[in-house]
Batch of 2 targets.
Target 1
Amino acid sequence: MSDRMTDADESNIYVNAWHGNEPYDPTEAIRLERACDMFRKHAEASDPQRRYRLLDIGCGIGPLRRWLAGERFEIVGLEISEEAAALARKTYDDCTVGDVEKPWPVEPESFDGVHAGAIMEHVVNWHKPLNHANTALRAEGQLVVSTPNLCFWREVCRLVRGRQPHWIKNMAHVHGYTPAFLRQLISLHGFEVTGFQADRVNLPLLKWCDRTMSRWFAGIGAVMIVTARRTRRVRIEHEDLAHSFPRNRPVGMHAIEVLDA
């Protein structure tokens, strides 16, 4: 049997990554609520005469409506699982079935916010969803990304003891990120990072003040929640494709910036 993963195998990994019919547990609710707090603050500073348009990629069953009221927020989902998308449509304004790494079925600069919650660890090419987010967002639009932190103090303890990090044990998790790497990656894609926090830190004896600790010591928290605003229109491609673009420049992370994007 070949070790090479087929397209069908890869698709199954993505489909099996959606949340399912189980309710979101309290730790998941923390990151979702904090992401919604960021969008609510951004909406307060935007045009009050129209609904704030939010695109939730890899949206699962559509949890954000719990915190974002329909009269102020128009929420559109993008989800690879047809079953999950059908559930999301019950609360969201719409939800399309699609792969976040392929072109998104949305108009350029048509959204005020993009939410990428617990999706970046599942993608094969981390540049693609960030490219699409840059295109989908209006100028000064807001991106909120949450993903497991490889620098979570418990993960570091596992590594020191020679154990596999918990986040990389899950076969649906293709990549792992540190705070510095994720900040750099998001910045490459034309965003300015404006906020960084964790969902929880769970330091022994300090759980009573964990909400405060998750802001002070976000770099060692469990799940990173990064907020960024779009400052420039760019597209980042793999360096192997440099010959395809007459105007480009190297930007690190084995990538080039396409200058005529």
Note: The chain has eight helices and ten strands.
Target 2
Amino acid sequence: MCTPGPNVYPACAQNLGPADQWPRAVSELSKCIALLALVFVLLAGAGLGLGGQVGATLFAHGVVLTQLWAPMARADDTGHPLAALGLHLGLWRQELRLAGVLALALWPLWAGALTGAQPLMQRWELWPLGAAPWAGGGTAAIILWVLGQVLGVALPEELFWRGYVQPVLEARWGGRPGAGGALRFGRGTALCTLLFALGHVVGGAGPLALGTFFPGCVFALLRARAGSLVGAVALHAGCNVFAAVIMQTFDGF
């Protein structure tokens, strides 16, 4: 189990089990539900474009800030180290290697799903026609955009959904662990992953975004396997970057 050092949360010597990640407390479940409601309200505001472009941008930033701040605030309030949220580097090499292997296995399926859904996405104006988000700025723009996907999208989402919501819901609706507890995927994790996918729909990505349930399952298993977010964040960001490249390729960019 990870324990905090004097100034920094250290590398973990072993995996964290669900019981170590977050307390089995009914009171935490109520806080989790309240935060889920807040995130969905902010996502709806961004998805519906409330307040015009400026308002939608503020709602979107509110989502990111809530997903980053809320889990750490709850950890602080309950006396848990940040490592309990998966913010540790104990297995980062193994997790990055596993994320790379999973990317090689999953990206062909991801590309097929995106290209197969292209006609519907274009009809619903969800396919990003036009210049790529990194266009016009050269290598620096590409690097900044990729960093934005890691730090502004994948990290906040994984910290909130897999770091906080998943272990809380697992503690309430988990069932018994699987082999060694490493590949446990109980009702709580399934519910968390479904809510994660619904959040994309509410946030304006359209009904096809329910398909994010499937990569979400992989992110959830990565989190459960190591008690860390490193692999989940890396694979999540990689999937987003890969999807953008695929869509821009089919736009003739």
Note: The two ends are 48 Å apart (CA to CA).
